[in-house]
Amino acid sequence: MTADTTATAGPDRAPDPDPDPGPGPRALARQRRRASVVRFWRQYRTHRAGLVGLAALVLCALVALTAPLTVGADVRSVTDAPGRPLESPSAHFPLGTDQFGRNLLGLLIWGSRVSLLVGLLAAVLSVAIGAVIGITAGHFRGWYATVIMRVTDWFLVMPTLVLAIALATVMSRSLGTIILAIGVTTWPTTARLVRAQTLAVESRPYIERAKALGGGHWHVMSRHVLPNVMPLVLAQTTLIISSAILAEATLAFLGLGDPTLVSWGGLLQDAREAGAVSSGDWWYLVPPGIAIAVVALAFTLCGRAVEAVLNPRLGVSR
Predict the structure, then answer these.
(1) What pLDDT, on the 0 to 100 scale, is given for residue 15?
(2) Which residue pairs from 170-173 have beta carbons closer than 8 angstroms and sit at least 24 positions apart in sequence?
(3) Which of 156, 171, 185 shows the shortest CA–CA distance to 247?
(4) pLDDT value of position 21
(5) What's the DSSP call for residue 10?
(6) Distance between CA atoms of 189 and 155, rounded to whole angstroms?
(7) CA torsion angle for 78, 120, 62, 100 (degrees, to 10)?
(8) By the 8 A CB rule, do 264 and 112 touch?
(9) Within 45-141, where are the H helices?
(10) Other C-beta atoms within 10 Å of 104: how many?
(11) Number of helices (H), then strands (E), in the chain
């Protein structure tokens, strides 16, 4: 009896291990983000124009970041200029010299830091203002949306350059003034686009469910609306950067920039003051103009490629 019972019971078994619960919510979110980035890059690299623009931007960024090592800050010095005023291009000065005898190639490289910085910061400020106004106007609607969109319409019909010149004139001449003048005058287009996208997102059923479950205004805007408008905001940022660089060059050319800084627009202003146009000193005018055009075109190509990837229905050519 005892032997049969012992044989039937057998040795104690270890409890079966719990099944693998799988990755947690954060790990799943990271996996989805990585998959989205990989999918985005796979589609982006099919656009040849976008790759050309990206390569040009990477090269310009490397030149700007390494400027302190390649040319040094002393390239801006007027008292220690290495050449004679307005020397034509030569082996020692590949792009010639300016009116003070400074190396124009070094000034062009150093000026890329200011031009790219102003373009990036002004575009970020402009898109941030436009996104906030567009999301809030699309979410709250009512009298708030009416008032804020009428203000947006007023900014849209006013010439952007005139407003930027007015702000840069009444404020102190500094880099921050240029960034602020460009940023606060170029946001209406972004606000209009983001508001339209917000209205489309908030008409979807899951937004109604989120509100029914107790989701407040901040929860709906930050967790549901913002992620859906971010692709549009990203594409708009790349397109506005080129406009911001051109606006900075224009303001600097008009003498409204910081005179202590070297930028591509400032070089054009110096060339105009030195009479390079009438005297035929083309090396003083052409390189900064080409640099502005190349960077603006590169950002535009990248922006069009990003738009085509995020919204294939646009049908942008490759």
Answers:
(1) 55
(2) 173/256, 173/257, 173/258, 173/259
(3) 185
(4) 59
(5) -
(6) 9
(7) -10
(8) yes
(9) 48-65, 67-70, 104-140
(10) 26
(11) 15, 0
If the chain, 318 residues long, is cut into consecutive pieces of 10 residues, what is the mean pLDDT of each piece? 47 53 69 83 89 93 91 84 88 89 91 89 92 92 89 86 83 85 89 91 85 84 86 84 85 82 87 84 89 90 85 55
Separation CA 283–CA 83 (nearest Å): 15
Q: What type of residue is 271?
A: A
What pLDDT, on the 0 to 100 scale, is given for residue 5? 47
Phi and psi torsions of 97, nearest 5°: -125, 165
Sequence-distant (≥ 6) Cβ neighbours of residue 308 within 8 angstroms: 47, 50, 314, 315, 316, 318
Q: Which two tokens stand for residue 311?
A: 């919204």
Distance CA(99)–CA(274), nearest Å, equals 6
Rounded Cα distance, 47 and 306, in Å: 9
Q: How far apart are the first and last CA of the chain?
A: 85
188: Cβ–Cβ under 8 A, 6 or more apart, which residues?
130, 152, 153, 155, 156
Q: How many residues does the chain have?
A: 318
Distance CA 103, CA 70 (A): 13
Residue 86 tokens read as: 């307005």
CB 98 within 8 A of CB 85: yes
The pTM (predicted TM-score) of the whole model is 0.78
Are the C-beta atoms of residues 81 and 101 closer than 8 Å to each other? yes
